[in-house]
């Protein structure tokens, strides 16, 4: 099981979009995937047209409350969800001392059934993000190609570093920065990318995601990139990104196998 958190205190950088679309692509590869929403906004549910109240299924609040039986909701055959809603905010007020709540919850064997767990987090530097980091093997920071993004990335990295230093047994690796909503026609683009490459070197992911109307409209139609046409630029980029990430987290072999099977 590999757990990947998507974090950044800056709002609207593409955390939820990346979490949902990556989870969706992974599951389409045949990888058993769980997406956990830790954001009170509950955007993952909206994106996937899933009921935020979660009904008879468990949600992320049950997980934080360390319920013994966890029964995630189903999106597709290989994609399950633990949704969130505003009630999760109460955990933001609790300081984490020693180990985290999720670390205990992750011992639940239901979670061990998943090959990949993606965690979407709120745009804050809060206990909920720390909870996410405490159970993650990796964390990913999305950024938009704009001047203030460098500062946003640096602050997110600093927050992750502090969290790792304070929470017992929290040791996620930095997967990298995902450049999202790029527009190569903008004059500042090349300069911006070279500055980021200089600062981050191999921690800037090779695959960058273009700004497209298709992605912007996706949540409206409850469509992820998997539902797009095969020639869609966003779908091609996201498949490339998913492969790059799987390789970095060591699930490369399986993916090659799956792509071979599909031909
Ligand atoms: N590559 C893209 N092309 C076009 N629109 C995009 C792209 N990525 C994200 N968006 C849009 O940008 C907006 C913000 O994205 P998203 O909600 O994923 O960000 P976020 O970081 O999760 O925000 P928050 O911090 O509020 O949780 C959304 O309307 C989304 O549809
Ligand atoms: Mg979000």
At a glance:
The chain is α/β, with parallel strands linked by helices. The protein is built from eleven helices and eight strands.
What are the defining features of this structure?
263 residues, alpha/beta, Rossmann fold, 11 helices, 40% helix, globular, disordered C terminus, binds adenosine-5'-triphosphate, binds magnesium ion
What is the secondary structure topology, with strand pairs?
Layout: E1 2-6, H1 15-28, E2 33-37, H2 43-47, H3 60-64, E3 73-76, E4 79-82, H4 101-105, H5 109-112, E5 116-120, H6 127-134, E6 138-143, H7 149-166, E7 173-182, H8 189-200, E8 209-210, H9 213-217, H10 233-249, H11 252-262
Parallel strand pairs: 1-5, 1-6, 2-4, 2-5, 6-7, 7-8
Antiparallel strand pairs: 3-4
Bound molecules: adenosine-5'-triphosphate and magnesium ion (MG).
Adenosine-5'-triphosphate binds next to helix 1, strand 7 and helix 9.
Can you walk me through this structure?
The chain is an alpha/beta fold and 263 residues long. It has a single domain, classed as P-loop containing nucleotide triphosphate hydrolases (Rossmann fold). The chain starts with a strand and ends with a helix. It binds adenosine-5'-triphosphate and magnesium ion. Magnesium ion binds next to helix 1.
CATH topology: Rossmann fold
Ligands: adenosine-5'-triphosphate, magnesium ion
Terminus-to-terminus distance = 27 Å
Radius of gyration: 17 Å
Number of E-state strands: 8
Give the count of helical stretches.
11
Number of domains: 1
CATH class: Alpha Beta
């Amino acid at each position: 099981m590999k757990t990947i958190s998507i974090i950044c205190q800056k709002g609207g950088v593409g955390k939820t979009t990346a979490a949902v679309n990556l989870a969706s692509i992974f599951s389409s590869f045949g990888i058993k995937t769980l997406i956990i929403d830790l954001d009170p906004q509950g955007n993952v549910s909206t994106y996937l047209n899933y009921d935020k109240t979660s009904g008879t299924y468990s949600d992320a609040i049950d997980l934080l409350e360390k319920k013994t039986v966890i029964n995630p909701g189903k999106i597709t055959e290989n994609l399950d969800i633990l949704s969130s809603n505003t009630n999760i905010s109460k955990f933001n007020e609790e300081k984490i001392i020693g180990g985290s709540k999720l670390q205990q919850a992750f011992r639940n064997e239901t979670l061990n059934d998943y090959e990949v767990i993606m965690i979407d987090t709120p745009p804050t530097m809060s206990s909920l993000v720390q909870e996410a980091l405490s159970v993650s093997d990796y964390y990913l920071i999305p950024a938009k190609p704009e001047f203030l993004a460098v500062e946003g990335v640096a602050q997110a990295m600093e927050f992750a570093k502090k969290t790792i230093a304070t929470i017992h047994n929290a040791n996620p690796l930095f997967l990298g920065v995902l450049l999202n909503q790029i527009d190569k026609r903008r004059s500042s683009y090349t300069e911006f990318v070279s500055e980021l490459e200089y600062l981050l070197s191999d921690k800037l992911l090779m695959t960058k995601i273009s700004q497209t109307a298709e992605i912007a409209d996706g949540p409206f139609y409850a469509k992820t990139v998997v539902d797009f046409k095969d020639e869609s630029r966003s779908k091609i980029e996201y498949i490339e990104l998913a492969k790059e990430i799987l390789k970095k987290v060591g699930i490369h072999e399986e993916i090659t196998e799956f792509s071979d099977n599909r031909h």
